[in-house]
Amino acid sequence: MTTADPAEQGFGNSHIVEPRAGHPHTHTAILLHGRGSTGEEFSEELFEMFLSQVEGVDNPGDPRTTLADKLPTWRWVFPSSACTWNTTFEEWVPAWFEAYSLADPTSRQDLQPPGLRASAGPVDNADGAASRLVLGGISLGGATALWTLLGTNRPERPLGGFVVVSSWLPFANDVEKHLGRLGDGGGSDVHHFVLEMTEPLRLHIRHQQQQQQQQHQQYDKKPPSVLDTLIFGAHGRDDAFVDIELGRHAQQVLTGVGLTVQWHEYEGAEQEGHWIKEPEEMDDLKAFFDAVERRTL
């Protein structure tokens, strides 16, 4: 049986799908569910979705295949969040943090830091195999995972990949002011949560810039950085719950920080566009995971 990595356990109770029988464990994906869901439910819904059919190639007689079928050496970890009090609906719901409004994520941002702060540490504890780890999530889970990435205390270590679907970046404007392309910490009106959480990353960016400016010093190889993490970003143009402009803005902010985002847009997904488009987005996700494998095998 595969031993659980501390990074997997840090998010709490998880539903785990092990590698296919007869295949070694080579990579791990940790994927966070959206508001009102659970890890097990997210797993079931994700693995009920199929890639494009290739008749007679994958499974003769039934060409439909899932990500788990196509990536048999991957371990899939689906953590479940605790229930938090939702001020808008006045009830307890499963959620990584409280988002007062998905239509306007800047509304009541004071409610967001406790949950986001709690999400920042788990991946820092990964057992030395961060390059074989993909982190990500959908909707509220994607927003949470983004702060796991930006709030890392080990910015010198890239992940294998990152996936954010139908989501947004909480405190995006503040991140843009504080880090931007210069990482100079500018902006006296930046929220204290952003100042605190991104300080290791800001110092890391600044250190990289200083190295690049030292013309007399030659580097055979660029030092590793969390900014080298491959990012898959996707959003539905017809998303009725999280406007695509929020996703596009997140992509722009991440690019400004120095990350590279493979951006994809779709139409016609279930749940009024607030879900994964089948099979096109599934095909693109498979190609992304393949790229992660090629970098690490």
Automatic annotation (TrEMBL):
Transmembrane segments: none annotated. Residues 70-209 form the Phospholipase/carboxylesterase/thioesterase domain. GO terms for molecular function: carboxylic ester hydrolase activity; palmitoyl-(protein) hydrolase activity. One of its GO terms (cellular component) is cytoplasm. It comes from the Eukaryota. Residues 1-22 are annotated as: Disordered. Belongs to the AB hydrolase superfamily. AB hydrolase 2 family. This is Phospholipase/carboxylesterase/thioesterase domain-containing protein. It comes from Sporothrix brasiliensis 5110.
